[in-house]
């Protein structure tokens, strides 16, 4: 099967920016109260069992969740991001994988983090990812996702983290994402929308905490 262009472009873009991305964001959690709050709640709710940081990038949140006591591993579409993650967090597990077809057994995860990892998939294709997230979670398992808020509009990104790239990103409607999750078998227990923080955030940011039914 031919890979969709948006997948190829996303992988190439993150391969290009991986080192700069890791350096620029390495200390961001220290100044992001809401990020730490939502990640802390996710860690408390999830408790024991394996947790997947799905779209982990350089592993900065994988490492943070591990520091909160979770048995966490990371996967990412970008091989270069995974290389950076393995180098930065050698005590944790990382693998190259796709959110559309995860190499993870059915019902094996206690928790899944999809932190800004849905934003490069066209909205009409997101039901596939929502169903895949539901597939890998055990009944009662928790999902935390975060994304930029908008009307599902497409943005073409040609420069990021000091590099020329070519990729699309989508600012998503929280109601739309909540419906996707509900259709995939989740109950959304909590929703937070906050105002932009750092200068590079141009829109509101959303967090959805959802529990797999069953």
UniProtKB/TrEMBL annotation:
Pfam family, one: Methyltransf_25
Keyword match Methyltransferase: yes
Keyword Transferase on entry: yes
Ranges where the Methyltransferase domain occurs: 53-141
Gene Ontology biological process terms, A to Z: methylation
Cleaved signal peptide residues: none
Cross-referenced InterPro entries: Methyltransf_25, SAM-dependent_MTases_sf
Domain of life: Bacteria
Keywords, in A-Z order: Methyltransferase, Transferase
Molecular functions per Gene Ontology: methyltransferase activity
Protein known as: Methyltransferase domain-containing protein
The organism of origin for this protein: Amycolatopsis rubida
Highest classification ranks of the organism: Bacteria, Bacillati, Actinomycetota, Actinomycetes, Pseudonocardiales
């Amino acid at each position: 099967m031919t890979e969709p262009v948006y997948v190829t472009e996303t992988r190439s873009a993150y391969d290009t920016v991986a080192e700069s991305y890791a350096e620029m964001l390495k200390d961001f959690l220290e100044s992001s109260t809401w990020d730490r709050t939502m990640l802390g709640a996710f860690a408390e709710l999830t408790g024991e069992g394996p947790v997947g940081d799905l779209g982990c990038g350089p592993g900065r949140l994988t490492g943070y969740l591990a520091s909160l006591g979770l048995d966490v591993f990371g996967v990412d579409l970008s091989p270069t991001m995974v290389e950076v993650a393995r180098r930065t967090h050698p005590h944790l597990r990382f693998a190259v994988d796709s959110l559309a077809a995860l190499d993870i057994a059915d019902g094996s995860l206690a928790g899944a983090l999809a932190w800004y990892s849905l934003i490069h998939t066209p909205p009409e294709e997101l039901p596939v990812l929502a169903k895949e997230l539901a597939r890998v979670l055990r009944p009662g398992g928790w999902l935390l996702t975060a994304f930029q808020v908008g009307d599902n509009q497409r943005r073409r990104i040609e420069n990021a983290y000091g590099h020329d790239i070519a990729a699309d990103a989508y600012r998503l409607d929280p109601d739309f994402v909540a419906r996707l999750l509900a259709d995939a078998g989740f109950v959304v227990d909590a929703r937070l929308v906050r105002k932009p923080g750092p200068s590079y955030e141009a829109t509101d940011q959303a967090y959805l905490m959802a529990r797999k039914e069953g």
